[in-house]
Design brief:
CATH superfamily: Glutaredoxin
CATH topology: Glutaredoxin
Shape: globular
Helix content: 55-70%
Order of helices and strands: EHHEHHHHHHHHEEH
Number of domains: 1
Length: 199
């Protein structure tokens, strides 16, 4: 009998996606739920809703509170947190490489390391050197992987994921969807999403 399914939609530029990524696999394992990771881009989603920048920048008072909230959650989880100097960062390259890795079996580990680079150590994930270092750490063929990430197939898949997210009415990340199409938004809804996936 197949396990209940939950899809984890994320953008590497999303702070709360970082927090969810660092805990979703263990929680899903404990719940007996299989998780599919699906990168998409928040930029086009925000633009379609009239935002030209991250809501954290558009609403600075709210942004300051959310950063502090993320710091507290990370501390509770026992993981380092450092707000990057550059925000938001382009997550296009990281998202494309993640799609390659998810097909080849190393995408989730890569994804966690990208999130950690940005939000635990303040690295710039839009810099190809950062992505290259992470790939090398996982002993993945760097040049071949970057070439695959720039293929029409992978570019189209990331665009299609983003278009799908817009059609489903996404307005932020992380978002979790069940096999029945139920939508949950935010790191703090992960446990509820896992419970719902089992219904």
């Amino acid at each position: 009998m197949s396990k209940p399914q939950l899809t984890f939609w994320f953008d590497f530029g999303s702070t709360y996606s970082f927090l969810a990524a660092m805990r979703i696999e263990q929680l899903a394992k404990d719940a007996g739920v299989e998780v599919t990771w699906k990168p998409f881009l928040l930029g086009p989603v925000f633009q379609s809703q009239g935002l030209k920048d991250s809501p954290l920048n558009v609403f600075p008072v709210k942004g300051k509170a959310l950063i502090r909230d993320a710091q507290r959650i990370a501390e509770d989880m026992g993981i380092p947190f450092k707000w990057p100097d550059k925000f938001p960062q382009s997550s296009v390259l990281a998202g494309r490489v993640a799609l390659v890795g998810l097909k080849e079996g190393w995408g989730k580990d890569f994804g966690r390391d990208v999130f950690s680079a940005e939000y635990s150590y303040g690295r710039d994930i839009s810099d190809q050197n950062t992505i290259t270092e992470i790939l090398a750490k996982h002993k993945v063929p760097v040049e071949a992987t970057l070439t695959k990430a720039q293929s029409d197939e992978i570019k189209s898949e990331l665009r299609d994921n983003t278009a799908d997210a817009q059609k489903r009415g996404f307005f932020g990340a992380p978002t979790f969807t069940t096999a029945s199409g139920e939508l949950f938004w935010g790191n703090d809804r992960l446990e509820q999403a896992l419970r719902w996936a089992k219904k």
